[in-house]
Amino acid sequence: MSIQVGKNKVLKAAPTMATNDIADLYQAAHLMVATVRVLTHQRRIPPSLSAVCQALCFSEEHGLLVCRRLIDLGVLEMTTAAHDNKLFIKDHLAIEAIPRGNADSRLDEELRRFQAGRSQINQKVESIQAQAEEKKRKLFAQLEEQLKKPAR
To answer: Which end is more exposed in the chain, N or C (fewer Cβ atoms within 10 Å of the end residue's Cβ)?
Structure first.
């Protein structure tokens, strides 16, 4: 993307990757760990979160979201330096514990489970209503029989 500032000046913005471009956490984790390794190799110091995000064309917010999830899973470790956060690889094999696939399939699965639970509840309600209706019929039948009996 280019923006014309003056007659001869053109600013070029680095493309940023939207959250939906990385379909799932598994892919984003592999990208983050690989970028941390490459930047550590190139610069001989652990990279900052902003350097990793810039290399991956992630927004800082998306990069921090992925990074926090990876820290919770034990894949990465982040230390706070004077001006920046530094990233270290803690356990790269923990990435394999992350489920593959996008969040939509997990959402669909949760929705199916919810609907199945809901249908079970509806079946229970219907059976309770049917039992109550049968009780009413029996009660009315008993009352009718008692009314039909001649009084002595």
So the answer is: C
Give the angle 39-49-47 at the CA atoms, nearest 5°: 30
**Chain Cα centroid distance, residue 3:** 35
Q: Which pair of tokens denotes residue 7?
A: 């007659």
The tens digit of pLDDT for each residue in 95-146 reads 887 777 665 666 778 889 999 999 999 999 999 999 999 999 999 999 988 8
**Conformational region of residue 59, where left means phi above 0, alpha means psi within -120 to 50, and beta covers everything else:** beta
- 38-51 burial, b if ≥16 CB within 10 A, otherwise e? ebbeeeeebbbbeb
In sequence order, what are the beta bridge partners of 110? Answer: none
The residues, any chain, with a CB within 8 Å of residue 144's CB and separated by 6 or more, are: none
> What is this structure's pTM?
0.54
Asked whether the beta carbons of 55 and 124 are under 8 A apart, the reply is no
